[in-house]
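Thread title: Can someone regenerate the structure for this chain?

I was given the following input by a collaborator and told the matching structure tokens would be attached. They weren't. Posting the sequence so someone can regenerate them.
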Amino acid sequence: MSIKSIAVATDFSARADRAIDRAKILRDQFGAQLHLIHATNLADDDPPDMADMDRRMCAASGLSSDEKGVEFAFPSGSPPKAIAKACANCDADVLALGPARYNTIGDFFLGTAVDHILRNADLPVLVVKSRAHAPYDRIIAGTDYSDASAHAIIRAARMFPDAKVHIVHAWEVAFQAFNKDAHVAGQTQDDEQRQMKDFLAKLREKEPRLAEATFQLVRGNTISALREALQKDPNALVVLGSHGESGFKQATIGSVTSELLRYLEGDTLVINTKDAE
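Best answer:
Regenerated them for you:
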């Protein structure tokens, strides 16, 4: 399943430029349709000035709605709901958007609209933080060995069939403050190796190309493990599932996923995995 239809949401601010640039690269890479969306936040009976909206979208994107394969949409209403509805109308395979704003120490606050979309969207959501220079050549996927994370990795591998896949799992010794014996850490690491082996076998069974996937077991926390992998390849795409186990399982997006989105510097693809659970 490659990408045939891309939606990108913009509020016409400079923050959205990176998402638009990435969406344009994806369009050229896959020959996909590109749908640019701006939610007007107006009532249905208060239509916007369409000529002005068109002009602003052209200025923001460098594209024209007259171009083949390009469509502008200006849905009314609450931005999160309007954007989700517009994505459904164009049958988008992925929605690209930027973080809402940055704070003074450099981490990312997603903002109400972005957070709402991530919690409620059925389609994969690509949060674009980095400047787009080239197609993604590598996927870095965090896993907790759950069916949900397997679903996310498989779907991402099919969306980006030319990207190499690197799977990262962070582990810690249970009751680490009390278990200082190196033997306990060794047993834990051996168990993690076995679980990763079983997990990779499950992935290969469902998606043969993942037989070439590499992996890394990192003692520590998930954020540090993924940051370490990103430092080696800043152009990589991080992939996360929105639900799962071991801290991922929440009624909404999940605490671990939410923290990763806030503090990882790289572009992150969040895949809704509720159907896998």
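Residues 102-110, 175-179, 244-254 have pLDDT under 50 and may be disordered.
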